[in-house]
Design a protein that fits this description.
Length: about 450
């Protein structure tokens, strides 16, 4: 199943707009070595210092990008495949605050919170990749990213996503991961981590992004290349314009990446963060956020560049009806997008708050959606004409061998959502979903 938003003509229009931006306006590239590399590859420089990209250079980079990205767990098994038919889910990262499920308090993250997040990521059945959700504020900023990565690798063997504060810290993290893998070659062969970096909107490639992109390319390590374009503030307010500008920025980053090492793995996606111009707030729960993600999947998919999709997130500040509705909506759209890599599960407050309750809720939704995207298999066994023949007169379907054979797989079974009758639910204490989620968290953390 695939929900396509953009026509091929729409994708071509966005591509031509992105090329026009790169040719006429260009990119401000802050790293001197990268500037020299780009100029040697044919980029011209204008009086204002912006480098201008020729379409032929962009096309060469596009065609050298691998069509999918694969991440492994530390046992060497495939954990996330961006080209898979079934979806893979990952939490968000880099939140400022945590919503404490014990006290319902919003507070700064600590190392203990990251430890609990790692354990929960490891034990939730539908979370395929780990992330810390937030940064531990009880450590100096220069130690937070490395500490988060170490906590994650100690708490789970699932692959992980991380964001370093600068290129020096980035290299230290990758060196630590290479040591765990048994060397750089082994890490490149079966990578179990994903680095997030990219340009700045509008139209800038900073020193850090250039150096991190080149470092990952040189070692053939997976990296996400995308900016964070806030509509109406760092780019056009219209989604088409925002996608066009951010795509120009992403393509410039991919040119740098592929010039350093053609064929190195890179992934992208929507870099568009819709802003509510009445409040000034970013809207992760809005339909526009999902539309931007869908548009990016279609656009980059037509270029055969792998993507991921942001979902499982809400603008609500607590796990309430709004959070469930927004996460359910954007996760449903995400699994129909055509990419199998979905991240940002567990976000509240438009990404500023991480929540274990939200992560567990999203894991439950993800389980349902993994069943949903399998669709309906139509064959002799599933059409079951013989079953109808055996049971239509005496209504013996319930005890038919076909029912007994398929009863555990014919219907997805929830672990938190309830299906009891109202009387049964009352007899069990009328426990609401959020309370069941909190019990589930405690059970998983203490297991």
């Amino acid at each position: 199943m695939k929900l396509r938003l953009l026509s091929e003509g729409d994708s071509e229009g966005i591509y031509q707009a992105a090329i026009q931006i790169l040719q006429e306006m260009g990119m401000m590239v802050k790293d001197l070595d990268t500037r020299r590399m780009l100029q040697k590859a044919g980029c011209g420089e204008s009086e204002d210092g912006y480098l201008h990209f020729d379409e032929q250079l962009v096309q060469k980079a596009i065609t050298s990008v691998p069509e999918k990205m694969v991440l492994y767990d530390r046992n060497g098994d495939v954990a996330v495949d961006s080209g898979d038919a079934l979806p893979h889910f990952a939490p968000g990262l880099n939140s400022i605050n945590v919503l404490d499920y014990r006290s319902a308090e919003h507070r700064l993250y600590t190392v203990k919170d990251i430890e609990e997040t790692a354990r929960l990521c490891d034990r939730l059945p539908n979370i395929d990749m780990a992330a810390g959700l937030g940064n531990p504020s009880d450590l100096p900023p220069s130690e937070q990213a490395m500490a988060t990565v170490k906590v994650l690798t100690e708490g789970t063997r699932k692959p992980l996503a991380f964001i370093a504060h600068d290129e020096k810290e980035d290299e230290e993290i990758w060196s630590y991961l290479a040591e765990l893998a048994g060397g750089w070659d082994r890490l490149a062969e079966k990578p179990f981590a994903l680095d997030l970096t990219g340009p700045y909107s509008p139209l800038q490639l900073g020193e850090e992004a250039c150096r991190r992109l080149k470092f990952c390319a040189r070692h053939r390590l997976p990296v996400v290349c995308y900016p964070a374009l806030v509509t109406g503030a760092a780019g056009p307010v219209t989604l088409a314009g925002a996608i066009a500008q951010s795509s120009a920025e992403i393509l410039a980053g991919i040119v740098v990446h592929q010039l350093e090492q053609p064929g190195a793995p890179v992934i992208s996606g929507s870099a568009v963060l819709p802003m509510d111009l009445m409040t000034g707030g970013i809207t992760y729960g809005s339909p526009e956020y999902s539309l931007a993600c869908l548009g990016a999947v279609d656009f980059f998919g037509d270029l055969k560049i792998p993507t991921w999709f942001g979902a499982g997130c809400s603008d609500s500040h607590t796990v309430d009806a709004q959070a469930a509705a927004e996460a359910g909506m954007n996760l449903q759209v995400a699994v129909l997008s055509g990419t199998s890599f979905i991240h940002n599960l567990g976000y509240l407050s438009a990404g500023k708050t991480g929540s274990l309750e939200m992560l567990v809720l999203c894991d439950e939704i993800a389980g349902s959606l993994k069943s949903f995207v399998k669709g309906i298999s139509v064959n002799g066994e599933s059409l079951a004409v013989d079953v109808t023949r055996r049971g239509y007169k005496d209504h013996s379907f319930l005890m038919d061998e076909h029912t007994l054979k398929n009863m555990r797989t014919a219907l997805w079974q929830p672990s938190i959502f309830q299906r009891a009758t109202r009387e049964q639910w009352s007899e069990l204490g009328s426990v609401e979903a959020l309370d069941r989620i909190r019990v589930r968290i405690t059970e998983l953390l203490e297991r």
